[in-house]
Amino acid sequence: MTIDEGYVKYKSYWTKAPVPYAAVTEELDSWRRPLLAAGLIGQYEELEIGYGNISIRCGEPGQFLITGTQTGHISETDKTHYSLVTSYNTHANIVCSVGPMQASSEAMTHAAIYGLDLNIGAIVHGHSRDLWRSLSNKLPTTGADVPYGTPQMADEFRRLYRDTAFRETGLAVMAGHEEGILSFGATLEDAAKKILNLLESRPNA
Known about the structure:
The chain is of the alpha+beta class. The chain has helices spanning 25-37, 107-114, 129-135, 151-163, 166-169, 188-200; strands at residues 11-16, 42-44, 49-51, 53-57, 64-67, 82-89, 94-99, 122-127, 141-142, 171-174, 180-185.
């Protein structure tokens, strides 16, 4: 397995401060726990590199709360483990955030997807080798040469939303990001259950 995970690739303008809308982080943690239990969020122990992140639309238009970078190993998160993305420019590769932790390395991808439709209320990015292998090119799939957390990945999700069933299913495989699976939904429950249901529907699951 080739690990390309956990590194912030965008230009980050981060203000370290208490996270705004702290009460909303309780909802994020409540759905992060079953994702963690299912192995969709976690850490590659031998490398001490975390994976998986979740977010929810919150605050002013275009803003969202997201897990902080390298939090995959944390069993129970609280308001100290999240950041509010306050603005971004996917073409200029810039993400601005405020919180006790810098926003996830996937914040650029989340930003691009929120920009597709105001009805998208939450996003889950998980890792599953089984799902990634079995569903690549069956579900809408990003290009194998497109790395995570980049303007190119943002463009790929725009393409999937325009040209594939991603708009209807809210599910996609990230071919160039090994093990990466992503879902969106109107609510955090909706987004989380889409990926959890994929695991439960596997043969012999």
